[in-house]
Amino acid sequence: MKKLSLVAVLALSTMAWAQTTNKPAESKNSADKALLVKSDAAELEAKKKSAEEKAKLPKPYDPKADAQADIKKLVAQAQKENKKILIQAGGNWCIWCLRFNNFVQSTPELKEIVDKNYLYYHLNYSPDNKNEKTFAQYINIKEKQGYPFFIILDDNGKMIHILKDSRVLEKENGYDKEKVETFFKTGKI
Protein backbone atom coordinates (compact mmCIF):
# COMPACT_ATOMS: atom_id res chain seq x y z
CA MET A 1 0.00 0.00 0.00
CA LYS A 2 2.83 2.37 0.88
CA LYS A 3 4.42 1.62 -2.47
CA LEU A 4 1.14 2.35 -4.28
CA SER A 5 0.71 5.63 -2.39
CA LEU A 6 4.27 6.62 -3.15
CA VAL A 7 3.81 5.88 -6.86
CA ALA A 8 0.55 7.87 -6.89
CA VAL A 9 2.20 10.85 -5.18
CA LEU A 10 5.12 10.73 -7.60
CA ALA A 11 2.80 10.51 -10.61
CA LEU A 12 0.66 13.43 -9.40
CA SER A 13 3.76 15.48 -8.61
CA THR A 14 5.17 14.81 -12.05
CA MET A 15 1.91 15.84 -13.72
CA ALA A 16 1.67 18.97 -11.61
CA TRP A 17 5.28 19.89 -12.36
CA ALA A 18 4.78 19.31 -16.09
CA GLN A 19 1.71 21.53 -16.10
CA THR A 20 3.40 24.36 -14.23
CA THR A 21 6.44 24.28 -16.46
CA ASN A 22 4.23 24.31 -19.55
CA LYS A 23 2.25 27.33 -18.43
CA PRO A 24 5.10 29.83 -18.75
CA ALA A 25 5.98 28.35 -22.13
CA GLU A 26 2.38 28.80 -23.27
CA SER A 27 2.40 32.37 -21.97
CA LYS A 28 5.69 33.02 -23.70
CA ASN A 29 4.33 31.58 -26.93
CA SER A 30 1.25 33.77 -26.59
CA ALA A 31 3.47 36.80 -26.03
CA ASP A 32 5.59 35.83 -29.03
CA LYS A 33 2.46 35.47 -31.13
CA ALA A 34 1.23 38.86 -29.96
CA LEU A 35 4.57 40.41 -30.91
CA LEU A 36 4.43 38.71 -34.31
CA VAL A 37 0.94 40.04 -34.90
CA LYS A 38 2.06 43.56 -33.95
CA SER A 39 5.12 43.23 -36.17
CA ASP A 40 3.04 41.92 -39.07
CA ALA A 41 0.56 44.77 -38.64
CA ALA A 42 3.37 47.35 -38.59
CA GLU A 43 4.92 45.77 -41.67
CA LEU A 44 1.57 45.77 -43.49
CA GLU A 45 1.03 49.42 -42.57
CA ALA A 46 4.52 50.34 -43.85
CA LYS A 47 3.86 48.47 -47.11
CA LYS A 48 0.53 50.25 -47.48
CA LYS A 49 2.14 53.68 -46.98
CA SER A 50 4.90 52.81 -49.44
CA ALA A 51 2.34 51.70 -52.04
CA GLU A 52 0.36 54.92 -51.56
CA GLU A 53 3.52 57.01 -51.94
CA LYS A 54 4.61 55.03 -55.00
CA ALA A 55 1.20 55.53 -56.63
CA LYS A 56 1.55 59.32 -56.33
CA LEU A 57 5.07 59.62 -57.74
CA PRO A 58 5.85 60.11 -61.47
CA LYS A 59 6.92 56.94 -63.31
CA PRO A 60 9.95 57.91 -65.42
CA TYR A 61 10.99 54.42 -66.53
CA ASP A 62 9.72 53.03 -69.84
CA PRO A 63 9.93 49.22 -69.97
CA LYS A 64 9.18 49.34 -73.71
CA ALA A 65 12.05 51.71 -74.53
CA ASP A 66 14.98 50.57 -76.64
CA ALA A 67 17.71 51.63 -74.22
CA GLN A 68 20.55 50.93 -76.66
CA ALA A 69 19.00 53.20 -79.30
CA ASP A 70 18.04 55.84 -76.73
CA ILE A 71 21.56 56.07 -75.32
CA LYS A 72 23.04 56.23 -78.81
CA LYS A 73 20.79 59.24 -79.54
CA LEU A 74 21.75 60.81 -76.22
CA VAL A 75 25.46 60.50 -77.07
CA ALA A 76 24.89 62.39 -80.33
CA GLN A 77 22.91 65.04 -78.47
CA ALA A 78 25.52 65.24 -75.67
CA GLN A 79 28.25 65.92 -78.23
CA LYS A 80 26.24 68.78 -79.74
CA GLU A 81 25.34 70.27 -76.35
CA ASN A 82 28.68 69.54 -74.65
CA LYS A 83 26.97 67.67 -71.80
CA LYS A 84 27.46 64.43 -69.92
CA ILE A 85 24.84 61.71 -69.66
CA LEU A 86 23.43 60.77 -66.27
CA ILE A 87 21.84 57.34 -66.32
CA GLN A 88 19.65 56.43 -63.38
CA ALA A 89 19.19 52.66 -63.40
CA GLY A 90 16.07 51.25 -61.77
CA GLY A 91 12.39 50.83 -62.39
CA ASN A 92 8.93 52.07 -61.59
CA TRP A 93 8.67 49.22 -59.05
CA CYS A 94 11.45 50.78 -56.92
CA ILE A 95 10.29 53.35 -54.36
CA TRP A 96 13.83 54.72 -53.91
CA CYS A 97 14.20 55.16 -57.68
CA LEU A 98 10.94 57.11 -57.84
CA ARG A 99 11.86 59.14 -54.77
CA PHE A 100 15.20 60.12 -56.29
CA ASN A 101 13.67 61.21 -59.58
CA ASN A 102 11.00 63.20 -57.77
CA PHE A 103 13.59 64.74 -55.43
CA VAL A 104 15.69 65.95 -58.37
CA GLN A 105 12.71 67.20 -60.37
CA SER A 106 11.15 69.04 -57.41
CA THR A 107 14.34 70.61 -56.02
CA PRO A 108 15.08 73.65 -58.20
CA GLU A 109 18.81 73.80 -57.44
CA LEU A 110 19.30 70.13 -58.33
CA LYS A 111 17.13 70.29 -61.43
CA GLU A 112 19.12 73.30 -62.63
CA ILE A 113 22.45 71.48 -62.19
CA VAL A 114 21.16 68.40 -64.01
CA ASP A 115 19.57 70.39 -66.86
CA LYS A 116 22.72 72.49 -67.32
CA ASN A 117 25.27 69.65 -67.24
CA TYR A 118 23.56 66.38 -68.12
CA LEU A 119 21.12 64.57 -70.30
CA TYR A 120 19.15 62.58 -67.72
CA TYR A 121 18.07 59.07 -68.71
CA HIS A 122 16.14 56.44 -66.76
CA LEU A 123 17.43 53.00 -67.71
CA ASN A 124 14.69 50.50 -66.98
CA TYR A 125 15.26 47.24 -65.18
CA SER A 126 12.10 45.21 -64.65
CA PRO A 127 10.67 41.77 -65.39
CA ASP A 128 9.21 43.28 -68.59
CA ASN A 129 12.60 44.47 -69.81
CA LYS A 130 15.86 43.79 -68.00
CA ASN A 131 17.96 45.59 -70.64
CA GLU A 132 20.72 43.05 -70.03
CA LYS A 133 22.77 44.00 -73.11
CA THR A 134 22.76 47.65 -72.14
CA PHE A 135 23.58 46.99 -68.50
CA ALA A 136 26.36 44.58 -69.50
CA GLN A 137 28.20 47.51 -71.13
CA TYR A 138 28.61 49.16 -67.74
CA ILE A 139 28.31 46.55 -64.96
CA ASN A 140 28.70 42.87 -64.23
CA ILE A 141 25.07 41.80 -64.66
CA LYS A 142 25.66 38.67 -62.58
CA GLU A 143 26.28 40.80 -59.48
CA LYS A 144 23.32 41.81 -57.39
CA GLN A 145 22.56 45.50 -57.87
CA GLY A 146 21.08 48.04 -55.50
CA TYR A 147 18.60 50.36 -57.13
CA PRO A 148 18.78 53.07 -58.08
CA PHE A 149 22.36 53.21 -59.17
CA PHE A 150 23.96 55.78 -61.44
CA ILE A 151 26.20 55.68 -64.47
CA ILE A 152 27.82 58.85 -65.79
CA LEU A 153 28.98 58.93 -69.39
CA ASP A 154 31.03 61.60 -71.10
CA ASP A 155 29.77 63.25 -74.28
CA ASN A 156 31.27 60.38 -76.32
CA GLY A 157 29.35 57.75 -74.37
CA LYS A 158 32.39 56.55 -72.43
CA MET A 159 31.67 55.64 -68.82
CA ILE A 160 33.49 58.01 -66.48
CA HIS A 161 31.91 57.00 -63.17
CA ILE A 162 29.44 54.60 -61.64
CA LEU A 163 27.77 55.01 -58.26
CA LYS A 164 26.69 51.47 -57.40
CA ASP A 165 25.25 52.27 -54.00
CA SER A 166 22.89 55.23 -53.79
CA ARG A 167 22.50 54.72 -50.04
CA VAL A 168 25.39 57.17 -49.62
CA LEU A 169 23.00 59.85 -50.94
CA GLU A 170 20.11 58.93 -48.62
CA LYS A 171 18.89 60.70 -45.55
CA GLU A 172 16.06 59.16 -43.52
CA ASN A 173 13.24 58.35 -46.00
CA GLY A 174 14.65 60.56 -48.73
CA TYR A 175 17.86 62.01 -50.05
CA ASP A 176 20.43 64.45 -48.71
CA LYS A 177 20.39 67.59 -50.89
CA GLU A 178 24.03 68.50 -50.26
CA LYS A 179 25.31 65.01 -51.08
CA VAL A 180 23.23 64.80 -54.26
CA GLU A 181 24.40 68.27 -55.28
CA THR A 182 28.04 67.25 -54.73
CA PHE A 183 27.47 64.09 -56.76
CA PHE A 184 25.95 66.10 -59.64
CA LYS A 185 28.70 68.73 -59.59
CA THR A 186 31.67 66.37 -59.32
CA GLY A 187 30.28 63.11 -60.68
CA LYS A 188 31.51 61.43 -57.51
CA ILE A 189 30.67 61.17 -53.84
Describe this structure in words.
With 189 residues, the chain is of the alpha+beta class. The protein has helices at residues 2-56, 67-81, 95-106, 108-117, 132-136, 177-186; strands spanning 84-90, 118-124, 149-153, 159-163, 170-171, 174-175. The strands form two sheets. The chain has a four-stranded mixed sheet with strand order 2-1-3-4. It has a two-stranded antiparallel ribbon with strand order 5-6. A hairpin with a 2-residue loop joins strand 5 (170-171) and strand 6 (174-175). Helix 3 (95-106) packs across helix 4. It starts with a helix and ends with a helix.
Attribute tags:
single chain; four-stranded mixed β-sheet; about 190 residues; two-stranded antiparallel ribbon; alpha+beta
Spatial arrangement of strands, main beta sheet:
2-1-3-4
| SS-based class | alpha+beta
Annotation field: number of helices: 6
The largest pleated sheet is described as: 4 strands, mixed
Radius of gyration (Å):
28 Å
How confident is the prediction overall: mean pLDDT?
86
How many β strands by DSSP? 6
Low-confidence spans: pLDDT under 50, at least 5 residues? Answer: 3-17, 20-27
Beta-strand percentage range: 5-15%
Report the order of strands and helices.
HHEHHEHEEEEH
Blueprint (SSEs and pairs):
Elements (H helix, E strand, L loop, with lengths): L1 H55 L10 H15 L2 E7 L4 H12 L1 H10 E7 L7 H5 L12 E5 L5 E5 L6 E2 L2 E2 L1 H10 L3
Parallel strand pairs: 1-2
Antiparallel strand pairs: 1-3, 3-4, 5-6
